[in-house]
């Protein structure tokens, strides 16, 4: 009986063994990344620590440099390292303004090789459930740009989900009478965002845009 009890104690004690605290902290940080669960975070942490191809110092340096250097463009909200982004630095862009939700939506549009105008990143979309109101988005600067840059057309390129539709309708109401307003339509699936669309899909969506 005593022997059985001792073995049970050993089992309980061994079950409490975990990774060192520093490894656990690394796993916890990796778990905070979008789409990364506990098991995936653990595998990545171990790979970074043990794989000869891994270079944790280079990764940490790149993260720190990107965090330090990259900022939102003062005009459109896209990624920038010098105050203004590459798009806003080109004065020969067409006077057509494409309104998107996030800065990450600009590159898919650029890669479509169809759109030659300018961009405005809202920084999100209206969502009462998440307490995202018009004041939380870059709508004021959008209105200012339309007045100052003599924009010939505004293209609303927001997601086709409920929040995206609500944001598009809200902006259409604000911009009515200021300039022609269109929305990308053909080619983008309902509930989908720009980050999931390929170049051909985006090209067709831009060509098939409709008036608001």
Structural account:
With 212 residues, the chain is α/β, with parallel strands linked by helices. The chain has 2 domains: 2-69, RecR Domain 1 (Helicase, Ruva Protein, domain 3, Orthogonal Bundle), CATH 1.10.8; 79-211, 3-Layer(aba) Sandwich (Dna Topoisomerase Vi A Subunit, Chain: A, domain 2), CATH 3.40.1360.10. It is built from 8 helices and 7 strands, in the order H-H-H-H-E-E-E-H-E-H-E-H-E-H-E. The strands form 2 sheets. It has a 5-stranded mixed β-sheet with strand order 4-3-5-6-7, with helices on one face. The protein has a two-stranded antiparallel sheet with strand order 1-2. A hairpin with a 6-residue loop joins strand 1 and strand 2 (79-80). Helix 2 packs across helix 3. It is elongated and about 80 Å long. The mean pLDDT is 86.
How many β-strands, per DSSP? 7
Mean pLDDT: 86
Secondary structure: helix percent:
40-55%
Strand content: 5-15%
Order of helices and strands: HHHHEEEHEHEHEHE
Backbone shape: elongated
Low-confidence stretches: none
Short description:
With 212 residues, this protein is α/β, with parallel strands linked by helices.
Provide key terms for this protein:
single chain; 212 residues; alpha/beta; Helicase, Ruva Protein, domain 3; Dna Topoisomerase Vi A Subunit, Chain: A, domain 2; 2 domains; 5-stranded mixed beta sheet; 8 helices; 43% helix; 10% strand
Q: What is the topological layout?
A:
Blueprint: H1 2-15, H2 21-31, H3 38-50, H4 56-69, E1 71-72, E2 79-80, E3 96-100, H5 106-111, E4 118-121, H6 139-148, E5 153-156, H7 162-175, E6 181-183, H8 199-207, E7 210-211
Parallel strand pairs: 3-4, 3-5, 5-6
Antiparallel strand pairs: 1-2, 6-7
Helix pairs in contact: 2-3
């Amino acid at each position: 009986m005593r022997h059985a009890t001792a073995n049970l104690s050993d089992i309980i004690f061994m079950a409490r063994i975990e990774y060192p605290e520093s490894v656990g902290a690394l796993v916890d940080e990796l778990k905070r990344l979008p789409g990364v669960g506990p098991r995936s975070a653990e595998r990545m942490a171990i790979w970074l620590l043990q794989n000869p191809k891994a270079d944790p110092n280079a990764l940490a340096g790149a993260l720190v440099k990107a965090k330090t250097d990259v900022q939102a463009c003062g005009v459109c909200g896209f990624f920038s390292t010098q105050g203004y982004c590459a798009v806003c630095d080109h004065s020969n862009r067409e006077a057509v303004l494409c309104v998107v939700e996030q800065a990450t939506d600009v590159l898919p549009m650029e890669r479509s090789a169809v759109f030659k105008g300018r961009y405005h990143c809202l920084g999100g979309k209206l969502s009462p459930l998440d307490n995202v109101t018009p004041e939380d988005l870059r709508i004021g600067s959008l209105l200012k740009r339309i007045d100052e840059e003599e924009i010939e057309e505004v293209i609303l390129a927001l997601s086709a989900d409920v929040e995206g539709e609500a944001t598009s309708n809200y902006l259409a109401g604000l911009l009515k009478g200021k300039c022609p307003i269109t929305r990308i339509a053909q080619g983008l699936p309902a509930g989908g965002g720009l980050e999931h669309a390929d170049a051909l899909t985006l090209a067709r969506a831009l060509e098939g845009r409709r008036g608001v």
